Amino acid sequence: MIPLRDVIPSRTTPYITITIIALNAVAWLFELSLPHETLNAFLTVYGVVPAYFAPATLITSMFLHGSWSHVLGNMWYLWIFGDNVEDRVGHGRFILFYLLCGIAAALGQVAVDPNSTLPTIGASGAIAGVMGAYFVLYPHSRVLTLIPWIFLQIVELPATVLLGFWFLMQLFSAGTIAMTTSSQGGGVAFAAHIVGFLVGMGGVLVFRKRTLDPWEQPY
Hints:
By secondary structure, the protein is mainly alpha-helical. Helix content is 59%, strand content 10%.
């Protein structure tokens, strides 16, 4: 299921969401400029490698991606859900919230597979946190969604259904990997997605604004 847009307009300009997307785009263009061997070394240094853990990579890894589909998919989800979450927590707190979710997600992946020598990269964990926050803040929202099933269909789904289905798929995939002999998961950090989503659900209760104007109330 591919979300196209949600039904809640932004109350303020999502400066931080836009800035994060821009930083990821710049980082991706820089990756594209590197020769293949240099890029592999670069990702190993600045991605989170559990077997050779370096704390600084918890931040740098959030702005690196492995493919066009990886970066575009992540930024699209951030664009759809990030603006409303930024509305509710405030611009400054959204920076901290986003980074906290990304850091917790990366640490979750390290805890699950501490001996891995593959670099973990991507904004997926942080964006999973944003999605978890949206799940809590806007339980009555709806999302226009493209469903490529035999024929392309566009339907309006409750946000809880779309995001809940996404989360269950991460749990199912993580469980499937756990029952195989490979711990790498085909390069997909499902544990990071799960941890990020859960941290976002809980963390937004701390980061959200305590008092809101009537027009800022959840949809």
